[in-house]
Structures are given as structure tokens and as C-alpha cells.
Amino acid sequence: MLEKAPKMVLNSEAMGVLTIAGSDPSGGAGIQADLKTYASLGVYGCAAISSLTVQNSNGVYSVQAVKPELVKEQIRMVLADLPISHIKTGMIGTSQVAEAVGECLAEFKGTMICDPVLKASDGHDLFAADGLASLGEHIIANSTALTPNFTEFQALTGIVLNSDKDLSAGAEKLFSQYPRLKAIIVKGGHRNETSPVVIDSLFLRDGLKFRTITAERPRIETTNTHGTGCTYASALAAYHLKTGYWPQAFQQAGDYVAELLKLSCDRKMGQGTGPLWHHLYKEKDQS
Known about the structure:
By secondary structure, this protein is an alpha/beta fold.
């Protein structure tokens, strides 16, 4: 049962979210999906581009990292001017970009959500395996929340996940390794993909320990799943901006993605894995 949220701590209409991520020219993932998410949820969104990709619904064909200094200047110019309360990172791409972003994040006093994008859904590497240490040192270490999918969680923890006990062990390892983390959300879509249900898990730091909250939803059979990970993390940022409360943001972000999957499942856009249709979403009264 969802706990009652405390009184809202932020005026969401006066604050914004900055996304630091790659660009998807087909509009399904990356900064394009992030900005669509913020707009559909009534939150002001900005974007600093870390990588340019050549991709469409059939897959990722090539990636070009933006120069680290240019990424840094994008971030600093936005933060110097706009009232940004939340930053969400997606595809970072290279160790050099991770270091540049980390310099900016170390100065940021708001909430930081890291979606550790390591591979595209077609298997294309979006962050070199030997760059994981850099991602951890410069991005995750400065983050408030982490939103890996099942595969990314295994890569970050080095733990083979065969049970819920393994998930908890992985969360414990990451909380110990990264003291600034307050919340870890493991997205369940890639876990047991033949299961009729999807279970997302929220691990919430509670003093020296942590507690676990899960959300179970029916699996929605659809080929329109391009950008769901990006969309989830962005929705989490938007809802946390509105509520200031991780359990509620966790529940609402999952509900948002599930609703988008339902709204998008009978639509056709592209010849491969289709995108979510963010503009069809109408926010329900959350009171």
C-alpha cells in the first residue's frame, strides 16, 4: 500500500529538470523522450546533449560523443540561469564526458537521478565496459537516485541476480559504495520476460539500513517499447519534483509508463521497435 506523502516541498511550476543525455533523431528515446515526458507531466524540461546518435526504430547505427568541455558548458549555462531542482542523466557515453559531467554535479545542490544507460535495446554498446568505474566515480557517486534495469543492475553490482535476496545484496553493496544515494529503483521489465507480471523494486535508504517497496503490474504485450527506460527515469524526476517523496514518485512513474504502453500499443511509428506516444497521456488527478 502506498504511504501517504508529506506536504509538497517544492513549487513544481517554478522549478525545472535538466536532462543530460544522448540525442535520438527518431524521437523515441534520449533527450527527446525525456522532454516529451516532462511536457506531458507539466514540468519544465531542459537538455544538455552528451552524445549524438544515428538511430531509428530498427536500432542504433553509430554514436558520436560531444566534446567534454562543450557538455560541461551546456550544463553550467543552464544552471547559471534557470531554477533547476532536479538533474537526470541518461546516456553519458565516454569516461571523458562522465568526468566533465561529474565536475558540474559536484557543485549541484539539488536532486540527481542517474539512469545508467549502458546498452541500447538492440544490444549496441552505449558505454564501454571499461568505463563503468568512471561512471561510478563521477556520476553515480554524485547521485541521489539510481534507476538501472535488471541487466544494468547486474553490471553495476557484479552480482548474478537469481533471487530477491540477490537484489537486496546488490542494493546493499551500492548503498555502501555510494553514500549520497538515497534511492535505488530496479526496473523489472527485463527480469523473467516470460512472466505475466512486471515487478519494480524501490530500495530506500533508512539510516544505516534500507527498506524495500515493490510495485507489481501486468505485463503489457507490445512492440512499442523504445525509450521506456528513459521515460521512466524522467517521470521519476518529474514526480519527485512535484512531491518530494520517493515512494510516491516511484509508484506514479511506474503507473505513467504502464499507461503510456497501453495508449501506444496499437499505434504504428517506424518499421522496428516503436516509441511511446507521450502526447496521448492525460494526467489524472493524483490527490
